[in-house]
Amino acid sequence: MGRVRLEAITWDRLGDLLAERLLGLRAADGGPWLRIAFDGAPAARPGDLAERVAEALRVRGRPSLVVGTDGFWRPASLRLEHGHRDVDSYYDGWYDTGALWREVFGPLEPGGSGRVLPDLRDPVTDRSTRSPYVELPPGGVLLLHGPFLLRHWFPFDLSVHLLLSPGALRRRTPEPEQWTLPAFERYERETDPAERADVLIRADDPRRPAWRG
Predict the structure, then answer these.
(1) In 3-state terms, what secondary structure has residue 67?
(2) pTM (2 decimals)?
(3) Which residues, at least 6 apart from 84, have a Cβ–Cβ distance to it below 8 Å?
């Protein structure tokens, strides 16, 4: 990160500021939908911020749809082919990026239908969710949250990265999931999401975030 200057802020204020920024943002491809990334380890709870922004957009009259990548895990037979704690598989093969392109990003391309599948597979039961498609109207905003989002060349119009220091990541990751930590070290090393993201939020202390945006 070098000497990046971050400003203290509250989560409520963050949600409002990000929503206001999205109101004035146009899609890079000229289409009628915005696609926003909330990138971060599960311990950073990027989905919570995505939900805050969705609520802030709602009260401003802007439709949005929150989608989590954990609803697009591959079947367990593929995810766990090399064992339940294979770091490389977690990093490279747990998320069905093809399904995300097909069911989430494809419908939001210019000329697309706007009909997005909010999830594909229940991460707990490993069964199809059979969720109905959701039609995001023109002008709507996709708020996609999950880890490793900035390494797949997804067509985001704005990216938000929630950063945890190695110590905070270790403390806030439950013991059964500690085996995933090397994957986040690799992500930092190979992708440098803190530098790549449009908005950076340090979330070491969940009560006192700081940001650059």
Answers:
(1) strand
(2) 0.95
(3) none
